[in-house]
Structures are given as C-alpha cells and as structure tokens.
Amino acid sequence: KKVSPTGLTSDEIIGITLKKAGNDYEIKKTTVWNLESPKKGEIANEDMNTSLSKLSSITGDDLVVDESALAGVDPNPFELRVDYKSKEGIPKSYTLLSAGFDKKLNAYYVRKNNEPSIYKLSEYSIKSILEFKPETLVKK
After folding, report:
1. What region does 90 belong to: left with phi over 0, alpha with psi -120 to 50, or beta?
2. Separation CA 55–CA 136 (nearest Å)
3. Contact, 58 vs 126, CB < 8 A?
4. Which terminus of the chain, N or C, has less C-beta within 10 A?
C-alpha cells in the first residue's frame, strides 16, 4: 500500500510539481528550495519540511480492485509529480494522477505512474500538499 517509493527520505526530494485547477506550482531544489511558478523566489527549508515528510511517506489506506467503486466520485483532477535522487544519485520521479475524490469518505483515489492500480488515500495524507500555497512562503 506504500505509494511513495520505499526508503525515500525528505532529503532526497529535489522537486515538486502540482497541476490542479486553482493551485499550480513548481518547486525545485538546488542548494535551496526555489519556487519556479506561479512566481519565482526562495522558500525556507523549514517551510518545506511538512510537505516533504508527507511526500516521502504517502501510504494508501486501500488498493481499489473494482473500479466501479469510483462510479460516484467527484473528478477533482490533479497531477502531482515528485522528483528525487536515489541513494546512488540517479534522478527519478513518481507521479500521482487523480482518479477522483469521495466526499462521503474524505478519500482521494490516485494512480501512481499511470499504473493500473488505484490507491485510496485518506484526505489527511495528501490534502495539505494539494492546498499548499508556496507563493505565500517566498522570502521577501
């Protein structure tokens, strides 16, 4: 049920890109974290810590075997891409694509890397990343 790659740590993450209606952002790490869009600027490491720890430890509550379970869910489209460097320094990434949101269960359904499996995630595990507003954290 682990969605983020096994063994991934916050320190290995080097980029986050979210494409979601009303909240798009792209953040890259060189020596510091930089917001690339919607505007440009540096973000303090401590302001990134919560999001990074969540991105490195996303776990699904369940695997959805029967896609008919998604029949009544809101589309709520988003695409979240996390770039990281492996222990060997090789650039890698994983992508989560929304398959829907269930208001009754407060659950997001996502596909990882376009694989057929669908993971059910509790709202707690991903909502703060989807609602993250890095432009409010850019250093003046």
Report:
1. beta
2. 20
3. yes
4. C
